[in-house]
Amino acid sequence: MGNLTPLSYRYDSFVLFQIDVRCKIICICFLSIVIAKAQFLQLYLITAIFSWLLYRSGFNIRRLIRELKYFFIILIFLFIVRTITTSSSHISIPIFEFINRLKYIEIDLVKIDLIGILNYINANILNHIPIDKDGLTDGCQVSWRFFLIVIMGILFSSSTTAPAIKSAVMWFLKPFPFIPKNRVAVMVSLFVRFLPLLLEKATEVSDAQKSRCFHLKKNPIKKIKNITVPLITKVFNSADNLAIAMASRCYNENRTEIAEHSLLSSGYEINFYLGTIVLVLITLFL
To answer: 3-state secondary structure string, 193-247?
Structure first.
């Protein structure tokens, strides 16, 4: 289990792993709407629920944070961009009292004027960046919502098998005669299956480069290039091998399905439906 990525399926006796996948998909659809409209109170509540689900699902929170470290960089970038684009006024950074007492610092016998440097940054850089309370609030909420969407996806992907997802998609598309439900179901299940594979390949590339001391290089452009190119090559090779394997076995849409047993109800679905309805009502009326 040490080689599993956060998106990899893992078996557990917790109720999240036992409920019908159709219930999960319906709850995810409604929760996505709730998260998109949620304010701070609802975001606190949903975060507490997701944290409890992660803990009960057997996730190592520290390892999960370590695995998502690059995602947090994206969140910070999203927060900054959203804050700047939705703000209309400017922020001024005050000089703290303890800095005012220092006045100067000395490095290698060279005196550095802290007050002058901070005043210059404040006057020439920060005053040209619009940041206000509304912008900070909006940036925080948008980043928080995006984070919760990712956590919800991790919970779903790690507790649901690809055959179960395929069967659920086919069940949902059954009333629509003009949609090739078998083809769509295979595409969705393969997409979900390739998400953890992408993280696995990224870990392989990273470990291979660390073994060659590549992580000691300081050039960030070279780092991105030398990680992205082999990663894309590995992913496309895996997709090509999968396509060849499916073709060699004469895979087609009119095959006998054997995953219908994964759609059996466990009896706990009503609890998840009620919880989702309560969250929707809280979002609408609070």
So the answer is: HHHHHHHHHHHHHHHHHHHCCHHHCCCHHHHHHHHHHHHHHHHHHHHHHHHHHHH
170, 257 contact by CB (below 8 A): yes
Helix (H, G, I), strand (E, B) or coil at 141: helix
Say if CB 148 and CB 44 are below 8 A apart.
no
Between the alpha carbon of residue 276 and those of residues 34, 269, 280, 282, the distances in Å are: 9, 11, 6, 10
pLDDT of 23 > 60? The answer is: yes
Q: Whole-structure pTM over 0.85, yes or no?
A: no
**203-225 pLDDT, tens digit each:** 788 788 778 777 677 766 777 77
Give domain limits for the chain. 15-91+129-285
148 class by beta-carbon count within 10 Å (0-12 exposed, 13-18 middle, 19+ buried): buried
